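dude i think i finally got it to work??
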Amino acid sequence: MLQPLPPLGSQTSGHITALEYLSKYKRVAANYPSNLRTFYSPVDDVAGALAELIDGAAHSVVVAMFGFNDARLADSLRHKLVAENVFVQLTLDKSQAGGAHEKALLEREDYPASSIAIGHSEHGRIMHMKLCIVDGRYTATGSTNWSTAAETLQDNHLVIIDDPVVAAEARSRVDAIHANILNG
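look at this
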């Protein structure tokens, strides 16, 4: 039986790891690499795995997302934004965030302006990342936009990696893009 998701930044000695927990969304072979899980839409519950990852965040959630109109994931981020101990940073592409669905979602969530940057890359092009970093440890990346179509209709993938070095590298890049948008 699966236990509740442990805080992602904690050691889980004697308990299942967060990635093992996320395997409830997709069972994997016993010899599957222990530091990652791969999900494929539309056959796997990509949104469910992402929501669990965000909901389990204890310290930080940093997102760089091209397409974002999934209300469930928006609600998960909103819950973390109001938590005193969790830092949330959201970097969105201007061409997508201005869409009808995205605009309505952002207005409904009423995210604090200090945590969100909407714009383009340093080169004036689209910011096409699909990336989420949780607690400086977990990196969720792949081809999946955070949208109903990407999660339930299209063939996409999501890889969640448990590695603080990978997370630090991704965070460095996202922070540079975020800062450029805010200061550009």
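The chain has a mean pLDDT of 82.
im so relieved honestly
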